[in-house]
Structure formats: structure tokens, C-alpha cells
Amino acid sequence: MERDENVIYNFWRMRKTTMEMCYDRNYEVTQKDIDVSLKDFIEVFGDRPSEDRPSRSALSYIVKHKKNEKNRLYVCFVNKKKPGKEAVKCCFDFLEAHNLNRIVLVLQEEMTPAGKKLVLEVSKKFKIEIFFESELMQNITKHELVPQHIILSKHEKMKVLEKYKIKETALPKILLSDPISRYYGASRGQVFKIIRRLRFPTQQPPIFDDFPEFTNFAELREDKSCISYRLVV
């Protein structure tokens, strides 16, 4: 059995990452929520996960979107190591009871076939995202080699297409399954604006070197940053 101090540290890390993820999606999460120290986390939740102090489910929470109060997200940490139909059904029953339609399921391991079948059945009713705990130990957007990504509004997307006089299908692509797309909760058809900060003033934008087909849809700004765009597919 894993030691309590290791488990509680992992609990703190992955909850912090989900908070950062919600913040970056414009949900009502404050910097204070994100910056909770391990010590303060333990004071609130306890330090004996082997005795369910806390259980994984105690880490769950609901957040409301800043621009749309009806858009509420349930971040659900699932207790069951390999959740089956009953464990997953409890999560969706919670959505029903609280009039929610969007959920992030945080799992330790893959669901059973019965659990996966239920997710598929209710996916038309609820927006369901699945992350594994191992994916949330670090925030991928904080890595120094990952450029800033911003999802454009519909109006901003149209302005880009008009500027380059193209259809959206002409833009470079990023998969819906890409870790960045998943982190931001992107949908097919949305466009990411990507801002790459060049380390040296004389550095050629790497996007031009590595992806010459992107050259027509990228800009080198006066501050020596490079802006490009990708369509989520």
C-alpha cells in the first residue's frame, strides 16, 4: 500500500491541476484556490487517505463559468480504482440531481466494459471528459516548451479567416484528443491562437522551420513572438 504522505501529496497536486484547468477555461476559480499550500490542503481535507481522510470523492467540486452561469462543471474524483457501471452511474445521478450537464471524471484506471458502455449511452445527454490521475500530476501548459494557447471566440475566428481569405479547413490542425485540446475542453471546429515566445531576438520562429506549410498563417510580432492558428478536428 502506498504511504499516506505520498498519496496526499498526489491528491493535492492533481486537485491543483484541475483548478488551474478550470481557471484557464474561464470558470470561477480564484488564484487563492489554486495557490493552496500542501499544509493548508491537509488542514482542510486531512492526511490519512488510507482511512478515507480524505477519500477521493471528497476532492470533487462544482464550478460556474464566468460568462454563463448556466454553464457549470462538475469535477468528479472517483473512489473506485476500476469503476464499473454502478460507480459511474453515481456520478451521472449527481449531475441529474443538481441540474448539471458537464462533467470531468478523474479516474485511477480504465473503467470496466460496463462502465464504458454507460458513458457511451449518456454521452448524448452530458458533456463527459475523462482524465486519469497520472495526467494531472503536472500541468502540461506550464512546461517551458509549450506555447500559450487561446481558444478564439466565433467572432475572432471569423476575423482570422477573413484576414487570410481562407476556409477553416485550410488552417493547420490540432486533434481533439491532443492533450492541449483536452486541457482546455476544446470542441471540434474551434480555433486555437498560439503565441510562441522566442528565446532570443534573432531566433527564427520554430513554426517556420519545422512546419513550412504554416508560414502563410503565422505572424512574427514586434515583440519577437510568433502567432499562429490551429483548427480543432
Total of DSSP H or I helical runs spanning 4+ residues: 8
Percent strand equals 15-25%
* Structural category: alpha/beta
Oligomer: single chain
Distance between the termini: 41 Å
The CATH architecture of the largest domain: 3-Layer(aba) Sandwich
Provide the succession of SSEs: HHHEEHEHEEHEHEHEE
The residue ranges in which pLDDT falls below 50 over 5 or more consecutive positions are: none
Overall shape: it is globular
Which fold name fills CATH's third level, the topology of the largest domain? Dna-directed Rna Polymerases I, Ii, And Iii 27 Kd Polypeptide, Chain: A, domain 1
Q: How many strands?
A: 9
The total number of structural domains is 2
Assign the CATH class of the largest domain. Answer: Alpha Beta
CATH superfamily of the largest domain: RNA polymerase, Rpb5, N-terminal domain
Query: Can you give the helix content as a percent range?
Result: 25-40%
* Biggest β-sheet description: 5 strands, mixed
Domain RNA polymerase subunit H/Rpb5 C-terminal: 139-197
Protein name: DNA-directed RNA polymerases I, II, and III subunit RPABC1
Domain RNA polymerase Rpb5 N-terminal: 7-89
Main location: nucleus
